[in-house]
Amino acid sequence: MPTLNGCPFTLGLPSLLGGDRHQDTSQPEQKSSKKSSRKFPWAAAGGLTLVALLVLTALCLAVSCVLRFSSTFFSLISLLLGGFGSVLSIFIGWPIKLLFSFVPVGTSSIYSPAVTSPLHCNNSMELQPWEVLTFVPGTDGNPKSVQYELNSPTPHAVSLIDIDYRDTRLDVFSNGKYYGSTSDFVVDKSVYCGEDLNVCIEKGFSMGTVIIPGGKQSVEIAWSGKDVFPGTDKIVWGGDRKRRVMWKKELCL
Hints:
Blueprint: H1 9-37, H2 42-100, E1 124-135, E2 146-152, E3 156-162, E4 164-166, E5 170-174, E6 177-181, E7 188-194, H3 197-202, E8 207-212, E9 215-223, E10 243-252
Antiparallel strand pairs: 1-10, 2-9, 3-8, 3-10, 4-7, 5-6, 5-9
């Protein structure tokens, strides 16, 4: 009669009841231990950050070196070109200027006198064309000053040229302040140009342009000629008791 010790089911019971449960309970512990052992790689991140900073620094240094080199290069080029231009002006420009200095050049029909005041008028609009301005004797016996008023948002220019005989020079004031005079000249009443401005300019008559500031201005044009009696400031009128000049006014833009 067979015994129970030979039953094959006695071998499988412990594995079904006890062995598998023990293995199943140990698996979560192993997983949890693996998860807890993982840490953030701070050392690697720090190394990557350092490398990135080094790369950026190297790029900045490279860009600055390129900019410095380019500025130095262009400075050298400009110096070379400037020196080349100076050499050309010496060997080519000077002979040309010398050649044209012997060629007579005619004057333009439109006169543009030199500015005699510190103000500038690069562009202008004509307010009054060239006209004759006549000075007559005043109460002191000398030519009476001519006055006018102008209220403009920008400065204006008054241009003056002596005509007839070479004997008159003028000063310009505004609101009691001196702003300029026409050019100096050599008194010679035998030199005559009439009203031809080009001829007057060629013969060295007194002329100039004075710039008056913007705003409300009370302008005075006063005689300051040289044809006076010796030791006095009294004018020598001669037979014709008047002095004439040409003048025009322009608004500076």
